[in-house]
């Protein structure tokens, strides 16, 4: 599966790396990060992945916090126009947890910022201010976790 994706798209980026959290801890940290968000110097990278299983309403939830420990993927900002990256959950055979991988969704210019969409602003319409440059809705998508 991964090989097919690699062949079909111009570049493959990398999977995001961070602390894997239990949901209770993720919720505690999200509250702390929300409180700190008014400080311009602070930026958090808590990513919540929800995977709906084909069997019914069950949802697998993975909390990755790259705020303190992470790789370069933690620096990818949001863009309201969807940006130039798309995300895919990729499972390596034998791995229990999928990896969230970033793929180029179109050709990019040298020095162009890589961005993707953090989600749907309707889920939490009073989010942080968004400062993306194109077709901006003014709110950074986030969810009540
Ligand atoms: C995954 S980090 C991205 C890297 C971050 N900008 C940094 O310098 O460490 C996510 C955080 O970046 C900021 N951010 C990302 N995209 C943004 C945007 N379009 N407008 C405003 N802030 C944004 C928010 O503080 C968000 O919580």
From TrEMBL:
Alphabetized UniProt keyword annotations: Chromosome, Metal-binding, Methyltransferase, S-adenosyl-L-methionine, Transferase, Zinc
Annotated GO biological processes are:
methylation
| InterPro entries named among the record's database cross-references | H3K9_Histone-Lys_N-MTase, SET_dom, SET_dom_sf
Where is it localised?
Chromosome
Recorded hits in Gene3D superfamilies, A to Z, give: SET domain
PROSITE patterns linked to this entry: SET
A Gene Ontology term for the protein's cellular component: chromosome
The UniProt record lists the SET domain at: 9-119
A single GO molecular function, which one? methyltransferase activity
Entry protein name = SET domain-containing protein
């Amino acid at each position: 599966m991964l090989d097919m994706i690699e062949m079909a798209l111009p570049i493959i980026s990398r999977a995001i790396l961070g602390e894997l959290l239990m949901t209770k801890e993720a919720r505690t940290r999200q509250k702390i990060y929300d409180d700190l968000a008014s400080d311009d110097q602070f930026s958090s990278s808590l990513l919540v992945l929800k995977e709906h299983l084909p069997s019914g309403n069950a949802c697998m939830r993975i909390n990755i916090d790259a705020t303190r420990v992470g790789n370069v993927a933690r620096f990818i900002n949001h863009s309201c126009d969807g940006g130039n990256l798309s995300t895919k959950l990729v499972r390596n055979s034998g791995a229990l947890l999928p990896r969230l991988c970033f793929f180029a969704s179109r050709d990019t210019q040298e020095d162009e910022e890589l961005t993707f969409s953090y989600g749907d602003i309707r889920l939490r319409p009073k989010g942080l201010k968004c400062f993306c440059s194109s077709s901006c809705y003014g709110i950074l998508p986030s969810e009540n976790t």
